[in-house]
Write a structure and sequence with these properties.
The chain has one helix at residues 2-29; strands spanning 38-43, 51-61, 69-77, 79-82, 95-101, 111-115, 123-125, 128-130, 144-148, 151-159, 169-179, 181-185, 190-193, 197-204, 212-213, 218-220, 225-227, 234-240, 249-255, 257-258, 268-275, 287-293. By secondary structure, it is mainly beta. The chain folds into two domains: 38-148, Immunoglobulin-like; 151-293, Immunoglobulin-like (Sandwich), CATH 2.60.40.
Length: 315
């Protein structure tokens, strides 16, 4: 009987030791998951815009340039809050992340498709990698810093010389050459363009309005548009000299000449149309130059341009 009891006691002790050992190994190999915290910002040529509860996406992959999924997030100030929360791989393997805005579905080939109207901004961050042993942090090259991919244009009209015409007003201004569809390859960060282009109305006078007058021989138009780099743009312009529209001065296909070529995104320009004076009785040759200016903080796109419906048609 004593032998039997001793056997039961030894078996129980063995089971207890085995259970304790398994529990210790479980605790060692399955620690609490570590949530990923991401830090961000926006680069421009001269000023820094700030995220303000802005929906963004973060492409994720297990190797550089190969993104298998896209995470949703909300960017505010210098941080992106992922929704839902994401965790570092427990095996210590790295994650490769690249942020983009605005959110659109990630295609299987790692590309994003956007429709442009002139009002939407496209932003893309540098790729960063992080892991349990080397997490994403604020600063030290671990932040998702976003860059503008498009060119920002605002517009002004200038009369050369000392002569001004008090009755001269802006009737309409239209930009031609904006591509309607662009594809962004996340692996390279490059944009490719479709063949179709769409016109963008910068300003159009309502039927019951005389148009915008010049002040000191200069007219600064409200709002701005965002366009693709490495492209040719043309302007159509109509000026009124009186209430009779048959007397309007019409200019077609004015070529925009970019300082520096306009081949790089993330740059802001003022497009100035210069008209020699006197401009009457017939339209004269004009010069259109786009000069680099600071990219000032402001509401993205050009929805505040009078006479133009700037609704976002990207998504």
């Amino acid at each position: 009987m004593k032998g039997k009891m001793r056997y039961i006691y030894n078996a129980g002790l063995l089971l207890l030791l085995l259970y304790s050992s398994c529990t210790e190994r479980t605790l060692e190999t399955h620690p609490d998951p570590v949530p990923i915290r991401l830090y961000t910002g926006i680069r421009t040529r001269a000023a820094v815009d700030a995220f303000d509860a802005t929906p963004v996406c973060v492409a994720c992959g297990s190797s550089s340039g190969a993104y298998a999924q896209a995470w949703d997030g909300v960017a505010t100030a210098g941080e992106i809050v992922l929704t839902p929360v994401r965790y570092y791989p427990e095996d210590g393997s790295p994650l490769y992340l690249r942020g983009y805005y605005p959110p659109v579905p990630l295609a299987a080939d790692g590309t994003l498709a956007y429709t442009l109207t002139g009002s939407e901004d496209l932003l893309l961050s540098d790729e960063q990698n992080g892991s349990l042993s080397s997490p994403f942090t604020f600063g030290d090259g671990k932040m998702l810093m976003y860059n503008h991919l498009l060119i920002k244009l605002d517009f002004s009209i200038h009369l050369e010389g000392d002569v001004s015409i008090s009755s001269l007003r802006m009737r309409s201004l239209q930009l031609k050459g904006l591509v309607s569809r662009v594809t962004l390859a996340l692996s390279s960060g490059k944009l490719s363009y479709g063949a179709e282009t769409v016109p963008v109305t910068i300003y159009s006078t309502p039927e019951d309005s005389e148009g915008i007058p010049f002040v000191n021989a200069t007219l600064q138009l409200p709002g701005y548009v965002l366009v693709q780099p490495k492209s040719e743009f043309l302007l159509d312009m109509v000026l009124s000299i009186d209430d009779d529209r048959s007397h309007d001065l019409t200019y077609h296909d004015l070529v925009v000449s970019f300082e520096g070529g306009g081949s790089e995104g993330g740059i802001a320009y003022t497009v100035q149309v210069t008209l020699p004076t006197p401009i009457l009785p017939d339209p004269v040759s004009v010069k259109v130059t786009a000069t680099v200016v600071p990219w000032k903080t402001g509401s993205s796109g050009s929805g505040d341009i009078p006479g133009w419906d700037g609704a976002d048609k990207t998504r």
